[in-house]
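Teaching assistant here, posting this on the class forum so everyone can see the example we discussed in section. The complex has two components, and the goal was to see what a joint structure prediction looks like when all of them are supplied at once.
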Amino acid sequence: MYERIASNRRRTTFIIILFVIFIAALGFAIGYYLDYRYSVSSSYSILLMIFALVIAIIISFGSYFFSDRIVLGLTGASPLLREENPRVYYMAEGLSIAAGIPMPKVYVIEEQGMNAFATGRNPGKGVVVLTRGIINNLDDEELKGVIAHELSHIKNYDILLGTVIVILVGMVTIISNLMFRSFLFGGNRRSSSSKNAGGGIFSLVFLIIGLILIIFSPLIAAFIRFAVSRQREYLADSNGALITRYPAGLANALKKISLYSEVRTANNATEHMFIASPFGKNTKIAFSSLFNTHPPIAERIKRLQEMSLGIGIKSEAEIASEVKTENAAEIASEDEIAD
Amino acid sequence: MLAAILVPIIIVVVIIVVILIAGVGIYNGIVTMRNRIDNAWSQIDVQLRKRFDLIPNLVETVKGYAAHEKETLEKVIMARGVGMQAQTVEDSAKASNMITGTLKTLFAVAEQYPNLKADQHFTKMMEELQGIESNIAYARQFYNDTVLSYNTRIQTFPGNIFAGWYKFITRQYFEIEEAEARGPVKVQF
Protein backbone atom coordinates (compact mmCIF):
# COMPACT_ATOMS: atom_id res chain seq x y z
CA MET A 1 0.00 0.00 0.00
CA TYR A 2 2.63 2.53 1.03
CA GLU A 3 4.91 1.55 -1.85
CA ARG A 4 1.92 2.12 -4.08
CA ILE A 5 1.54 5.68 -2.79
CA ALA A 6 5.21 6.41 -3.43
CA SER A 7 4.92 4.91 -6.89
CA ASN A 8 1.88 7.04 -7.71
CA ARG A 9 3.63 10.20 -6.51
CA ARG A 10 6.66 9.29 -8.60
CA ARG A 11 4.56 8.63 -11.65
CA THR A 12 2.69 11.90 -11.21
CA THR A 13 5.98 13.80 -11.09
CA PHE A 14 7.25 11.84 -14.07
CA ILE A 15 4.16 12.56 -16.11
CA ILE A 16 4.24 16.24 -15.23
CA ILE A 17 7.89 16.41 -16.34
CA LEU A 18 7.08 14.45 -19.49
CA PHE A 19 4.24 16.85 -20.17
CA VAL A 20 6.45 19.91 -19.73
CA ILE A 21 9.10 18.43 -22.04
CA PHE A 22 6.48 17.42 -24.55
CA ILE A 23 4.91 20.87 -24.67
CA ALA A 24 8.29 22.57 -24.82
CA ALA A 25 9.34 20.26 -27.66
CA LEU A 26 6.12 21.01 -29.46
CA GLY A 27 6.73 24.74 -29.02
CA PHE A 28 10.22 24.30 -30.37
CA ALA A 29 8.98 22.24 -33.30
CA ILE A 30 6.39 24.86 -34.20
CA GLY A 31 9.00 27.58 -33.86
CA TYR A 32 11.40 25.70 -36.05
CA TYR A 33 8.72 25.16 -38.58
CA LEU A 34 7.93 28.87 -38.61
CA ASP A 35 11.63 29.74 -38.94
CA TYR A 36 11.90 27.31 -41.76
CA ARG A 37 8.86 28.54 -43.51
CA TYR A 38 9.58 32.25 -43.24
CA SER A 39 13.35 31.77 -43.18
CA VAL A 40 13.93 34.16 -40.29
CA SER A 41 16.98 33.61 -38.07
CA SER A 42 15.99 31.03 -35.48
CA SER A 43 14.22 33.19 -32.96
CA TYR A 44 10.71 31.81 -33.18
CA SER A 45 11.86 28.38 -32.06
CA ILE A 46 13.54 29.59 -28.85
CA LEU A 47 10.82 32.11 -28.10
CA LEU A 48 8.04 29.62 -28.64
CA MET A 49 9.83 26.99 -26.63
CA ILE A 50 10.20 29.33 -23.64
CA PHE A 51 6.62 30.43 -24.04
CA ALA A 52 5.46 26.80 -24.21
CA LEU A 53 7.62 25.93 -21.21
CA VAL A 54 6.06 28.68 -19.11
CA ILE A 55 2.56 27.69 -20.19
CA ALA A 56 3.28 24.02 -19.49
CA ILE A 57 4.57 24.76 -16.00
CA ILE A 58 1.57 26.94 -15.21
CA ILE A 59 -0.78 24.23 -16.48
CA SER A 60 1.05 21.59 -14.43
CA PHE A 61 0.69 23.58 -11.23
CA GLY A 62 -2.91 24.30 -12.09
CA SER A 63 -3.61 20.65 -12.75
CA TYR A 64 -2.17 19.72 -9.35
CA PHE A 65 -4.29 22.19 -7.42
CA PHE A 66 -7.48 22.54 -9.43
CA SER A 67 -7.87 19.39 -11.49
CA ASP A 68 -10.33 17.78 -9.08
CA ARG A 69 -12.66 20.75 -9.43
CA ILE A 70 -12.19 20.76 -13.19
CA VAL A 71 -13.01 17.05 -13.34
CA LEU A 72 -16.11 17.50 -11.19
CA GLY A 73 -17.17 20.36 -13.44
CA LEU A 74 -16.47 18.42 -16.62
CA THR A 75 -18.61 15.48 -15.53
CA GLY A 76 -21.40 17.66 -14.17
CA ALA A 77 -21.24 16.27 -10.64
CA SER A 78 -22.96 18.02 -7.73
CA PRO A 79 -22.53 17.44 -3.98
CA LEU A 80 -24.74 14.87 -2.27
CA LEU A 81 -26.00 16.04 1.10
CA ARG A 82 -26.53 13.90 4.18
CA GLU A 83 -30.15 14.92 4.56
CA GLU A 84 -30.86 14.09 0.94
CA ASN A 85 -29.42 10.58 0.97
CA PRO A 86 -28.40 9.37 4.45
CA ARG A 87 -27.95 5.81 3.16
CA VAL A 88 -25.07 6.69 0.87
CA TYR A 89 -23.64 9.27 3.25
CA TYR A 90 -23.37 6.89 6.21
CA MET A 91 -22.05 4.14 3.96
CA ALA A 92 -19.23 6.41 2.83
CA GLU A 93 -18.58 7.49 6.42
CA GLY A 94 -18.36 3.94 7.77
CA LEU A 95 -16.23 2.61 4.92
CA SER A 96 -13.79 5.49 5.16
CA ILE A 97 -13.36 4.64 8.84
CA ALA A 98 -12.64 1.04 7.84
CA ALA A 99 -10.19 2.23 5.18
CA GLY A 100 -8.54 4.55 7.70
CA ILE A 101 -8.87 7.73 5.65
CA PRO A 102 -10.78 10.97 6.29
CA MET A 103 -14.34 10.87 5.02
CA PRO A 104 -14.39 11.95 1.37
CA LYS A 105 -17.00 14.27 -0.07
CA VAL A 106 -19.70 12.46 -2.01
CA TYR A 107 -20.84 13.85 -5.36
CA VAL A 108 -23.55 12.64 -7.67
CA ILE A 109 -23.93 12.76 -11.47
CA GLU A 110 -27.58 12.88 -12.50
CA GLU A 111 -27.40 10.08 -15.05
CA GLN A 112 -29.05 6.68 -15.24
CA GLY A 113 -25.93 4.80 -16.36
CA MET A 114 -24.24 2.95 -13.50
CA ASN A 115 -20.74 4.23 -12.89
CA ALA A 116 -18.48 5.85 -10.31
CA PHE A 117 -15.05 7.43 -9.92
CA ALA A 118 -12.90 9.18 -7.36
CA THR A 119 -10.88 12.36 -7.61
CA GLY A 120 -8.83 14.77 -5.49
CA ARG A 121 -5.12 15.21 -4.92
CA ASN A 122 -4.82 13.47 -1.53
CA PRO A 123 -7.02 11.50 0.86
CA GLY A 124 -7.83 14.68 2.80
CA LYS A 125 -9.34 16.18 -0.35
CA GLY A 126 -10.87 12.98 -1.69
CA VAL A 127 -14.15 13.00 -3.58
CA VAL A 128 -16.23 9.95 -4.46
CA VAL A 129 -18.55 10.50 -7.41
CA LEU A 130 -21.52 8.20 -8.03
CA THR A 131 -24.12 8.34 -10.77
CA ARG A 132 -27.79 8.43 -9.81
CA GLY A 133 -28.20 5.13 -11.64
CA ILE A 134 -25.63 3.33 -9.49
CA ILE A 135 -27.20 4.66 -6.27
CA ASN A 136 -30.66 3.53 -7.36
CA ASN A 137 -29.90 0.13 -8.86
CA LEU A 138 -27.38 -1.32 -6.42
CA ASP A 139 -28.26 -2.85 -3.07
CA ASP A 140 -26.33 -1.93 0.09
CA GLU A 141 -23.63 -4.60 -0.16
CA GLU A 142 -23.00 -3.79 -3.82
CA LEU A 143 -22.84 -0.05 -3.29
CA LYS A 144 -20.49 -0.60 -0.36
CA GLY A 145 -18.26 -2.62 -2.70
CA VAL A 146 -18.19 0.22 -5.22
CA ILE A 147 -17.52 2.92 -2.61
CA ALA A 148 -14.78 0.78 -1.04
CA HIS A 149 -13.22 0.37 -4.48
CA GLU A 150 -13.16 4.14 -4.90
CA LEU A 151 -11.84 4.64 -1.36
CA SER A 152 -8.89 2.38 -2.11
CA HIS A 153 -8.15 4.51 -5.19
CA ILE A 154 -8.16 7.51 -2.84
CA LYS A 155 -6.06 5.78 -0.22
CA ASN A 156 -3.23 4.80 -2.55
CA TYR A 157 -3.16 8.12 -4.43
CA ASP A 158 -4.40 6.69 -7.74
CA ILE A 159 -6.67 9.71 -7.74
CA LEU A 160 -3.77 12.18 -7.83
CA LEU A 161 -2.24 10.50 -10.85
CA GLY A 162 -5.60 9.94 -12.51
CA THR A 163 -6.81 13.48 -12.06
CA VAL A 164 -3.57 15.13 -13.15
CA ILE A 165 -3.60 12.89 -16.21
CA VAL A 166 -7.08 14.07 -17.13
CA ILE A 167 -5.83 17.62 -17.48
CA LEU A 168 -2.41 16.95 -18.96
CA VAL A 169 -3.41 14.23 -21.38
CA GLY A 170 -6.52 16.17 -22.30
CA MET A 171 -4.32 19.16 -23.06
CA VAL A 172 -1.86 17.12 -25.13
CA THR A 173 -4.69 15.59 -27.11
CA ILE A 174 -6.22 18.98 -27.85
CA ILE A 175 -2.89 20.53 -28.82
CA SER A 176 -1.83 17.63 -30.98
CA ASN A 177 -5.14 17.64 -32.78
CA LEU A 178 -4.78 21.35 -33.46
CA MET A 179 -1.22 20.92 -34.62
CA PHE A 180 -1.96 18.00 -36.82
CA ARG A 181 -4.66 19.92 -38.59
CA SER A 182 -2.54 23.03 -39.10
CA PHE A 183 0.26 20.92 -40.53
CA LEU A 184 -2.05 19.03 -42.82
CA PHE A 185 -3.73 22.09 -44.23
CA GLY A 186 -0.87 24.55 -44.02
CA GLY A 187 1.94 22.32 -45.22
CA ASN A 188 1.83 22.90 -48.96
CA ARG A 189 3.16 26.43 -48.72
CA ARG A 190 6.46 25.13 -47.47
CA SER A 191 7.76 24.23 -50.97
CA SER A 192 7.71 27.86 -52.09
CA SER A 193 10.36 28.92 -49.59
CA SER A 194 13.58 27.53 -51.00
CA LYS A 195 15.74 30.32 -49.61
CA ASN A 196 17.08 28.58 -46.55
CA ALA A 197 19.61 26.21 -47.97
CA GLY A 198 21.99 26.29 -44.98
CA GLY A 199 19.72 25.19 -42.16
CA GLY A 200 17.72 22.99 -44.48
CA ILE A 201 18.85 19.65 -43.16
CA PHE A 202 18.45 20.62 -39.53
CA SER A 203 15.11 22.19 -40.20
CA LEU A 204 14.00 19.07 -41.93
CA VAL A 205 15.15 16.93 -39.02
CA PHE A 206 13.24 19.04 -36.53
CA LEU A 207 10.28 19.19 -38.79
CA ILE A 208 10.25 15.41 -38.91
CA ILE A 209 10.65 15.17 -35.15
CA GLY A 210 7.84 17.66 -34.78
CA LEU A 211 5.67 15.69 -37.15
CA ILE A 212 6.46 12.45 -35.36
CA LEU A 213 5.54 14.06 -32.06
CA ILE A 214 2.33 15.31 -33.53
CA ILE A 215 1.35 12.09 -35.25
CA PHE A 216 2.23 9.99 -32.26
CA SER A 217 0.87 12.23 -29.56
CA PRO A 218 -2.57 10.59 -29.51
CA LEU A 219 -0.76 7.29 -29.25
CA ILE A 220 1.44 8.64 -26.47
CA ALA A 221 -1.62 9.90 -24.66
CA ALA A 222 -3.29 6.54 -25.04
CA PHE A 223 -0.14 4.81 -23.91
CA ILE A 224 0.12 6.89 -20.75
CA ARG A 225 -3.41 6.05 -19.77
CA PHE A 226 -2.90 2.45 -20.68
CA ALA A 227 0.27 2.24 -18.61
CA VAL A 228 -1.25 3.61 -15.44
CA SER A 229 -4.69 2.18 -15.37
CA ARG A 230 -5.06 -1.53 -15.95
CA GLN A 231 -3.39 -3.19 -13.00
CA ARG A 232 -4.62 -0.64 -10.53
CA GLU A 233 -8.25 -1.55 -11.20
CA TYR A 234 -7.54 -5.11 -10.10
CA LEU A 235 -5.68 -3.74 -7.12
CA ALA A 236 -8.50 -1.40 -6.15
CA ASP A 237 -10.98 -4.28 -6.55
CA SER A 238 -9.08 -6.47 -4.12
CA ASN A 239 -8.34 -3.64 -1.68
CA GLY A 240 -11.99 -2.66 -1.82
CA ALA A 241 -13.00 -6.22 -1.05
CA LEU A 242 -10.57 -6.14 1.86
CA ILE A 243 -12.33 -3.07 3.27
CA THR A 244 -15.85 -4.52 3.01
CA ARG A 245 -14.68 -8.09 3.75
CA TYR A 246 -17.27 -9.11 1.14
CA PRO A 247 -15.90 -9.60 -2.40
CA ALA A 248 -19.28 -10.79 -3.66
CA GLY A 249 -20.72 -7.29 -3.13
CA LEU A 250 -18.36 -5.72 -5.65
CA ALA A 251 -18.62 -8.73 -7.97
CA ASN A 252 -22.40 -8.37 -8.11
CA ALA A 253 -22.05 -4.62 -8.50
CA LEU A 254 -19.72 -5.05 -11.48
CA LYS A 255 -22.17 -7.49 -13.03
CA LYS A 256 -24.91 -4.88 -12.78
CA ILE A 257 -22.61 -2.10 -13.96
CA SER A 258 -21.63 -4.11 -17.03
CA LEU A 259 -25.27 -4.07 -18.12
CA TYR A 260 -25.35 -0.31 -18.48
CA SER A 261 -22.38 1.85 -17.56
CA GLU A 262 -22.68 4.72 -20.05
CA VAL A 263 -22.02 8.20 -18.72
CA ARG A 264 -22.74 10.81 -21.32
CA THR A 265 -20.62 13.53 -19.73
CA ALA A 266 -17.52 11.31 -19.83
CA ASN A 267 -14.93 11.86 -22.57
CA ASN A 268 -11.58 10.49 -23.70
CA ALA A 269 -9.70 12.40 -21.04
CA THR A 270 -11.86 11.35 -18.09
CA GLU A 271 -12.61 7.81 -19.30
CA HIS A 272 -9.83 6.13 -17.32
CA MET A 273 -11.08 7.40 -13.96
CA PHE A 274 -14.35 5.49 -13.95
CA ILE A 275 -14.85 2.12 -12.27
CA ALA A 276 -16.00 0.69 -15.60
CA SER A 277 -15.70 2.16 -19.07
CA PRO A 278 -18.25 5.01 -19.30
CA PHE A 279 -18.59 4.31 -23.02
CA GLY A 280 -20.22 0.97 -22.25
CA LYS A 281 -20.08 -1.81 -24.77
CA ASN A 282 -20.35 0.32 -27.89
CA THR A 283 -16.62 0.85 -28.28
CA LYS A 284 -16.20 -1.03 -31.51
CA ILE A 285 -13.28 1.05 -32.72
CA ALA A 286 -10.22 -0.76 -34.06
CA PHE A 287 -7.56 -1.42 -31.40
CA SER A 288 -10.03 -0.25 -28.77
CA SER A 289 -9.01 -3.14 -26.55
CA LEU A 290 -5.38 -2.07 -26.84
CA PHE A 291 -6.14 1.46 -25.71
CA ASN A 292 -8.90 0.55 -23.32
CA THR A 293 -7.81 1.69 -19.88
CA HIS A 294 -10.06 -0.81 -18.14
CA PRO A 295 -9.32 -4.49 -17.78
CA PRO A 296 -12.11 -6.69 -19.11
CA ILE A 297 -14.95 -6.48 -16.60
CA ALA A 298 -15.58 -10.24 -16.90
CA GLU A 299 -12.03 -10.90 -15.72
CA ARG A 300 -12.48 -8.57 -12.76
CA ILE A 301 -15.73 -10.28 -11.80
CA LYS A 302 -14.03 -13.67 -12.13
CA ARG A 303 -11.23 -12.67 -9.78
CA LEU A 304 -13.66 -11.33 -7.20
CA GLN A 305 -15.79 -14.45 -7.45
CA GLU A 306 -12.73 -16.57 -6.78
CA MET A 307 -12.00 -14.38 -3.78
CA SER A 308 -15.54 -14.78 -2.48
CA LEU A 309 -15.45 -18.59 -2.94
CA GLY A 310 -18.83 -18.23 -4.60
CA ILE A 311 -20.56 -17.09 -1.42
CA GLY A 312 -23.17 -14.41 -2.02
CA ILE A 313 -22.71 -14.30 -5.79
CA LYS A 314 -25.95 -13.50 -7.60
CA SER A 315 -27.03 -15.29 -10.76
CA GLU A 316 -27.40 -13.44 -14.07
CA ALA A 317 -31.18 -13.65 -13.75
CA GLU A 318 -31.17 -12.06 -10.30
CA ILE A 319 -28.88 -9.29 -11.53
CA ALA A 320 -31.05 -8.61 -14.55
CA SER A 321 -34.26 -8.53 -12.52
CA GLU A 322 -32.85 -6.05 -10.01
CA VAL A 323 -31.74 -3.53 -12.61
CA LYS A 324 -34.41 -1.39 -14.20
CA THR A 325 -33.42 -2.53 -17.64
CA GLU A 326 -36.40 -1.01 -19.48
CA ASN A 327 -35.21 2.34 -18.29
CA ALA A 328 -31.67 1.56 -19.37
CA ALA A 329 -32.73 0.25 -22.75
CA GLU A 330 -34.83 3.34 -23.28
CA ILE A 331 -31.95 5.64 -22.57
CA ALA A 332 -29.59 3.56 -24.66
CA SER A 333 -31.92 3.80 -27.66
CA GLU A 334 -32.25 7.54 -27.09
CA ASP A 335 -28.49 7.71 -27.37
CA GLU A 336 -28.49 5.90 -30.65
CA ILE A 337 -31.02 8.30 -32.07
CA ALA A 338 -29.01 11.25 -30.83
CA ASP A 339 -25.86 9.89 -32.44
CA MET B 1 50.02 0.42 -2.39
CA LEU B 2 47.71 3.11 -1.16
CA ALA B 3 44.81 1.46 -2.97
CA ALA B 4 45.52 -1.83 -1.23
CA ILE B 5 44.85 -0.18 2.13
CA LEU B 6 42.06 2.15 1.07
CA VAL B 7 39.85 -0.32 -0.78
CA PRO B 8 39.09 -2.61 2.21
CA ILE B 9 38.50 0.43 4.43
CA ILE B 10 36.07 1.92 1.93
CA ILE B 11 34.24 -1.40 1.61
CA VAL B 12 33.90 -1.74 5.38
CA VAL B 13 32.69 1.87 5.72
CA VAL B 14 30.14 1.38 2.95
CA ILE B 15 28.81 -1.80 4.57
CA ILE B 16 28.49 -0.09 7.95
CA VAL B 17 26.69 2.89 6.41
CA VAL B 18 24.28 0.61 4.52
CA ILE B 19 23.49 -1.33 7.71
CA LEU B 20 22.94 1.89 9.64
CA ILE B 21 20.61 3.31 6.99
CA ALA B 22 18.64 0.06 6.82
CA GLY B 23 18.43 0.00 10.65
CA VAL B 24 17.13 3.55 10.82
CA GLY B 25 14.58 2.69 8.13
CA ILE B 26 13.31 -0.37 9.98
CA TYR B 27 13.16 1.46 13.32
CA ASN B 28 11.26 4.39 11.81
CA GLY B 29 8.93 1.99 10.03
CA ILE B 30 8.01 0.29 13.30
CA VAL B 31 7.44 3.62 15.07
CA THR B 32 5.25 4.80 12.17
CA MET B 33 3.18 1.63 12.43
CA ARG B 34 2.83 2.09 16.19
CA ASN B 35 1.58 5.63 15.64
CA ARG B 36 -0.91 4.34 13.12
CA ILE B 37 -2.33 2.07 15.82
CA ASP B 38 -2.85 5.07 18.10
CA ASN B 39 -4.59 6.86 15.26
CA ALA B 40 -6.76 3.82 14.55
CA TRP B 41 -7.58 3.59 18.24
CA SER B 42 -8.72 7.20 18.32
CA GLN B 43 -11.18 6.35 15.53
CA ILE B 44 -12.76 3.70 17.76
CA ASP B 45 -12.66 6.06 20.71
CA VAL B 46 -14.56 8.77 18.82
CA GLN B 47 -17.35 6.32 18.02
CA LEU B 48 -17.44 4.89 21.56
CA ARG B 49 -17.76 8.41 22.96
CA LYS B 50 -20.58 9.20 20.58
CA ARG B 51 -22.38 6.19 21.97
CA PHE B 52 -21.64 7.21 25.58
CA ASP B 53 -23.20 10.60 24.82
CA LEU B 54 -26.28 9.05 23.27
CA ILE B 55 -27.07 6.56 26.04
CA PRO B 56 -28.34 8.96 28.76
CA ASN B 57 -30.81 10.51 26.29
CA LEU B 58 -31.94 7.12 25.15
CA VAL B 59 -32.44 5.88 28.70
CA GLU B 60 -34.43 9.01 29.61
CA THR B 61 -36.71 8.52 26.62
CA VAL B 62 -37.32 4.86 27.42
CA LYS B 63 -37.96 5.78 31.06
CA GLY B 64 -40.79 8.06 29.96
CA TYR B 65 -42.67 5.09 28.53
CA ALA B 66 -41.36 2.12 30.50
CA ALA B 67 -40.29 3.38 33.90
CA HIS B 68 -40.69 0.04 35.60
CA GLU B 69 -38.06 -1.64 33.39
CA LYS B 70 -35.62 -0.33 35.94
CA GLU B 71 -33.32 -3.31 35.91
CA THR B 72 -32.63 -3.18 32.18
CA LEU B 73 -32.09 0.56 32.23
CA GLU B 74 -29.70 0.34 35.16
CA LYS B 75 -27.67 -2.30 33.38
CA VAL B 76 -27.25 -0.04 30.37
CA ILE B 77 -26.15 2.87 32.58
CA MET B 78 -23.77 0.62 34.46
CA ALA B 79 -22.19 -0.74 31.27
CA ARG B 80 -21.72 2.82 30.07
CA GLY B 81 -20.00 3.71 33.34
CA VAL B 82 -17.64 0.76 32.99
CA GLY B 83 -16.87 1.77 29.41
CA MET B 84 -16.05 5.34 30.37
CA GLN B 85 -13.70 4.15 33.11
CA ALA B 86 -11.86 1.69 30.83
CA GLN B 87 -8.14 2.34 30.52
CA THR B 88 -6.87 -0.50 28.33
CA VAL B 89 -7.97 -1.74 24.94
CA GLU B 90 -9.07 -5.01 26.50
CA ASP B 91 -11.26 -3.28 29.10
CA SER B 92 -12.74 -0.99 26.47
CA ALA B 93 -13.53 -3.92 24.23
CA LYS B 94 -15.18 -5.80 27.12
CA ALA B 95 -17.23 -2.78 28.13
CA SER B 96 -18.18 -2.09 24.53
CA ASN B 97 -19.43 -5.64 24.13
CA MET B 98 -21.36 -5.25 27.38
CA ILE B 99 -23.00 -2.03 26.18
CA THR B 100 -23.97 -3.65 22.90
CA GLY B 101 -25.45 -6.55 24.85
CA THR B 102 -27.43 -4.42 27.30
CA LEU B 103 -28.71 -2.20 24.47
CA LYS B 104 -29.98 -5.29 22.71
CA THR B 105 -31.94 -6.23 25.82
CA LEU B 106 -33.23 -2.66 26.01
CA PHE B 107 -34.51 -2.83 22.44
CA ALA B 108 -36.11 -6.18 23.08
CA VAL B 109 -37.92 -4.55 26.01
CA ALA B 110 -38.85 -1.53 23.88
CA GLU B 111 -40.53 -3.90 21.45
CA GLN B 112 -43.30 -4.37 24.03
CA TYR B 113 -44.17 -0.67 24.13
CA PRO B 114 -45.89 0.47 20.93
CA ASN B 115 -46.00 4.08 22.14
CA LEU B 116 -42.26 4.07 22.65
CA LYS B 117 -41.67 2.57 19.24
CA ALA B 118 -43.82 5.29 17.72
CA ASP B 119 -41.88 8.05 19.48
CA GLN B 120 -40.05 10.06 16.82
CA HIS B 121 -37.27 11.02 19.16
CA PHE B 122 -36.72 7.37 20.01
CA THR B 123 -36.74 6.30 16.36
CA LYS B 124 -34.19 8.93 15.49
CA MET B 125 -31.91 7.86 18.32
CA MET B 126 -32.23 4.26 17.22
CA GLU B 127 -31.12 5.18 13.72
CA GLU B 128 -28.21 7.15 15.09
CA LEU B 129 -27.24 4.26 17.31
CA GLN B 130 -27.37 1.88 14.40
CA GLY B 131 -24.98 4.14 12.51
CA ILE B 132 -22.63 4.35 15.49
CA GLU B 133 -22.69 0.58 16.01
CA SER B 134 -21.72 -0.06 12.41
CA ASN B 135 -19.03 2.64 12.57
CA ILE B 136 -17.63 0.95 15.69
CA ALA B 137 -17.47 -2.28 13.70
CA TYR B 138 -15.65 -0.54 10.84
CA ALA B 139 -13.27 1.27 13.20
CA ARG B 140 -12.55 -2.01 14.99
CA GLN B 141 -11.76 -3.64 11.67
CA PHE B 142 -9.27 -0.90 10.76
CA TYR B 143 -7.73 -0.97 14.24
CA ASN B 144 -7.29 -4.74 14.19
CA ASP B 145 -5.77 -4.62 10.70
CA THR B 146 -3.28 -2.04 11.90
CA VAL B 147 -2.44 -4.03 15.03
CA LEU B 148 -2.01 -7.18 12.94
CA SER B 149 0.59 -5.63 10.65
CA TYR B 150 2.42 -4.03 13.59
CA ASN B 151 2.50 -7.23 15.62
CA THR B 152 3.66 -9.21 12.60
CA ARG B 153 6.42 -6.70 11.96
CA ILE B 154 7.82 -6.85 15.50
CA GLN B 155 7.55 -10.61 15.74
CA THR B 156 9.31 -11.41 12.48
CA PHE B 157 12.90 -10.82 11.39
CA PRO B 158 14.38 -8.20 11.40
CA GLY B 159 11.73 -6.36 13.38
CA ASN B 160 12.02 -8.75 16.31
CA ILE B 161 15.63 -7.63 16.94
CA PHE B 162 14.53 -4.01 17.22
CA ALA B 163 11.56 -5.01 19.34
CA GLY B 164 14.02 -6.56 21.80
CA TRP B 165 16.31 -3.53 21.85
CA TYR B 166 13.70 -0.82 22.01
CA LYS B 167 11.00 -2.67 23.97
CA PHE B 168 8.33 -2.63 21.29
CA ILE B 169 5.51 -4.72 22.72
CA THR B 170 2.69 -6.43 20.87
CA ARG B 171 -0.63 -4.63 21.00
CA GLN B 172 -4.00 -6.07 21.91
CA TYR B 173 -6.80 -6.56 19.42
CA PHE B 174 -10.19 -5.02 19.98
CA GLU B 175 -12.04 -8.27 20.26
CA ILE B 176 -15.62 -9.39 20.24
CA GLU B 177 -16.27 -12.06 22.81
CA GLU B 178 -19.76 -13.33 22.23
CA ALA B 179 -20.03 -15.83 19.41
CA GLU B 180 -23.33 -14.34 18.30
CA ALA B 181 -21.86 -10.87 18.03
CA ARG B 182 -19.46 -11.94 15.27
CA GLY B 183 -20.99 -10.44 12.18
CA PRO B 184 -22.86 -7.23 11.53
CA VAL B 185 -24.87 -6.00 14.49
CA LYS B 186 -28.44 -5.55 13.37
CA VAL B 187 -30.68 -3.37 15.47
CA GLN B 188 -34.28 -4.22 14.80
CA PHE B 189 -37.24 -2.13 15.81
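For the discussion questions: Chain B touches chain A at residues 36, 39-40, 43, 47, 131, 134-135, 137-139, 141-142, 145-146 (CB under 8 Å). The longest helix of chain B spans residues 2-65. Think about how each of these relates to the inputs above.
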